[in-house]
Amino acid sequence: MRHVLILVLVAWAVAADVRPTAGAERRSGDPPDAWSQVLLEIHRGDRLVVTRRDMTHVDGRVVSIDTAGLTVLVDGTERTVAVDDVAQLRVRGDRRRHVLVGIAVGAVAGAVGTVLIDQQSSHPSTKREAATIGAIVIGAPAGALAGALWPAGHVVYVAPGSPR
Question: Distance (Å, rounded) from C-alpha 41 to C-alpha 38?
């Protein structure tokens, strides 16, 4: 059972797509240095959530980005946000990927767990039956739920002095 838990944790860690944030390690640094890293990571067409310093959000696709700020297309309207007004930038991810990985990991964990538990019962079924029931009834739905709840996307910029 420990091996299954380790396998599940490793699979989630790989699927998490963890990336360092450009500014998190240099919170007291100069904002233009952190912003120059953002200029390398963000491209036209990327889906972003911009958190402004007043904690309002701008959610849309990047039209342009430069040293002065960025322009985002929101519901057909271009909105420009100055770099000094940006508290945080988060690239939106694809939650479907997390759900699919969750289904796969959950199905394997559910199958293995159900087989191990079923073999200890007084009336065990065949390993195939137990694995099928565990994968379909328990593991896959639980994994899909966990994948759907897993945050999609990643933070690429946190302005110095901004709350995380």
Answer: 5
* 20, 28, 82, 84, 155 from 158: Cα distances, Å: 11, 11, 14, 11, 8
| Alpha carbon distance, N-terminus to C-terminus of the chain | 37
Q: Are 35 and 85 in a shared domain?
A: yes
- Return the amino acid letter for 89: L
**Cα radius of gyration (the chain):** 22
Say which amino acid occupies 72. V
Cα separation, 94 vs 152, whole angstroms = 6
Model pLDDT for residues 9-49, shown as the tens digit of each residue: 555 555 554 444 444 443 444 445 788 888 888 899 999 99
For residue 164, tell me if it sits in a domain.
Answer: no
pTM to 2 decimal places: 0.54
Residues 53 and 88 in one domain: yes
The boundaries of the domain holding residue 72 are 18-93+152-158
Pair (29, 85) in one structural domain: yes
Please say whether the beta carbons of 85 and 52 come within 8 A. yes
